[in-house]
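assembly run, all chains below
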Amino acid sequence: MKKTPQENIIHKNFLPGVITKEGFLGDDPRHVHEIVNEDTRILARLNRTPEQVADRLQFFIEQGKKGLETKVDLGDYTVQIIWSRGLLPCPFEEPRLHHKITCTVEVKDLNRTFKYSQLSVHMIREHGFFGGRGSPFRLNPTEMVELLGA
Amino acid sequence: MIFKILITTAAMAGISGVLALLLVLAERFFANYGECKITINDEEEFTIEGGSSLLSSLNSQKIFLPSACGGRGTCAYCKCKVHEGVGPILPTEEPLLTEEEMAENVRLSCQVKVKQDMRIEIPEELFNIKEFESEVDKITDLTYDIKLVRLKLTEPKEISFKPGQYAQLNSKPYNGVKESVSRAYSIASPHFEKDHIDLMVRLVPEGICTTWVHDYLQEGEKVKFVAPMGDFYIREDEGEMIMVAGGSGMAPFVSILEDMARKKSKRKMTYFFGAVTKKDLFYVEEMRSLEERIENFTFVPALSGPEPDDDWDGETGLITVPLEKYLKSHDDLEKSQGYLCGSPGMIDACIKIMKNYGMKSDRIFYDPFG
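ok done. output:
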């Protein structure tokens, strides 16, 4: 599919070393739109929307903030956030910056841990983008529904 | 039929080619703005080749406006007033300007292109910001994720700054990262040691610049930075200074306290520093040394999640716990000043407590990481 000049600029933002060290696509050969479309379809089959997943992920960030980098025990989960200096733009080119917050959630019963950023939550909510396969903050939509009950 | 398709395809390709050529020619002849004069604060002026953004045109003349997003039009730090020589506000600027700012001709210098003579206004203190060339003198591990980097200045050879201000370090391309980025770090060295600056750099997950510092930067390497920037510095006063920091938020306070020690300040000063475990704690010996050199200075480190092996008998809990305990036992706090450096979450929590105990918001100063 041919890309518009704007899409070319946006695509560049997803590559390694532009906004983050490893970028947002990992080793996924698909176009951003294809990644979004497939993940949206998966979520729809599970009767969930990106907003619902983003709400749940944001809940953990808000709880984690209370810990000022110390682990916060939420019963079934523990959450810890690291809030680093600086701000990040969204690769989808919007006039807004996002705090460099990394959130680590541990699902106690399943002994599983996953990590994401404040920017990940924004991209899921506003663009339905969960990250390319193999990217550092890729969140698998099926796993998210399973782990978070989103 | 196939012949018709081939003819149509060839015709379409030909038309596209002609249009592309026209665009290139138009760019070459119509977008040639020639020399443009920029007048700053009705005092200084310089001439540049038009066509670039105002931000990069100013940079080319060694005038540096703060910028955190590399000219993407997202951080809004590079605002300045453009009184003449500019078109209407662009859609990329509108969301980042208030109505008052628009009325005062404030624009985003990274979005505005220089196409004709311009008359602009920028704050005087920004003229003190310079680009420095330096050499990495020493890199020291402070913790598992914070490094102290000493940069020896080569050109200019000296720097003047207020303790508490920051520098913007320019990274270099490395291992798949093709472009340089610029990131802000508070200066940790004393302002009277003018031939170098110290920066405390904490590794950010997926961070382009911090990964470069932690994994690629070598002693002896040449690096550039722009400084001094920021309005986080000491306001001279009589009241007690209550300082709070966490992680690399330690940096500006090292510079500030060394200045107070040199001045033989008698001001009462209490500094709360929060870490999770003992391995996140650093500069304790340096702070104890400052306690000996500054008459009324007390350092209060606190661990929020000490490990059993830490053998910690100091303050425990989030940094807000010892802070609140301290404020509760004092009155007359409205004369005190608060100085905070750390994550916005920590700063918000501390400001709330300080205000609860009577400290005035216009006497609380902070350098949020965001």
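The helical segments of chain A are 5-13, 32-45, 50-65, 118-127, 141-148.

The first strand of chain A starts at residue 72 and ends at 73.

not gonna interpret more than that til we talk
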